[in-house]
What does this fold into?
Amino acid sequence: MAVLSLMACSNSSDAESEKKSTEKSQTVTDTDDKKQNAGEKRESGDGQSGDAGAKDTVVVYFSGTGNTKKVAEKLSEELPADILEIVPAEAYTSENLDYNDDSCRANQEMNDESARPEIGNDLGEVLNYKNIYIGFPIWWGTNPRIIETFLDTYDLSGKMIYTFCTSGGSGIETSVSDLKKEYPDLDIQGGYRFDANADNTDIQKGIEGLTK
Ligand SMILES: Cc1cc2nc3c(=O)[nH]c(=O)nc-3n(C[C@H](O)[C@H](O)[C@H](O)COP(=O)(O)O)c2cc1C
It folds into this structure.
């Protein structure tokens, strides 16, 4: 992790205030839903975007401390789209997200390319949509590993996939190229970084940027 001096992020004061917000507002949603069947990829009918009866657009997001959640909710209003949250089976505590601590859970996961933190809810619904916006915070310059758990669990081939993030300053480009490399069969259109406090005009700009 030493090489990834945390701010790949361009602005260390941003990073600091992001960190404070991380500590302040750990947001977790109930995990009553069924646990995912590990190791088995789930597919829709024929997995194609032209599925008869396929719904149009959904926003799927993971958020550790609520920034990406806020943006995801606005994005789902503006698109418009349905919304699904990726809920970790084991919620991230603020200690888990303390990236100044080399051994915190998030850092351990990011240091291990094969880490696939378990998802606690059933997101099978995602297979019913044609266009999928996937949102996450940037961790160490890229997407949290739970996004890979999601992509390993649900076969999104044939769908149009857009990504978005919030961050302390880092862009989404590294994540987009990492995901394209790891999932060459997916139609990943690109990505957009939103400010955590993006307003509806910013969100519209992002949608234009993603779909132009
Ligand atoms: C483990 C960890 C690593 C992070 N790494 C970066 C980074 O490399 N670049 C950056 O700009 N922000 C980084 N951040 C800050 C988050 O991307 C930022 O606070 C984001 O808005 C959090 O979104 P959330 O509230 O949805 O979890 C990191 C945060 C954590 C917890």
Summary: The mean pLDDT is 84. The helical segments are 12-24, 67-78, 105-111, 145-153, 173-182, 200-211.
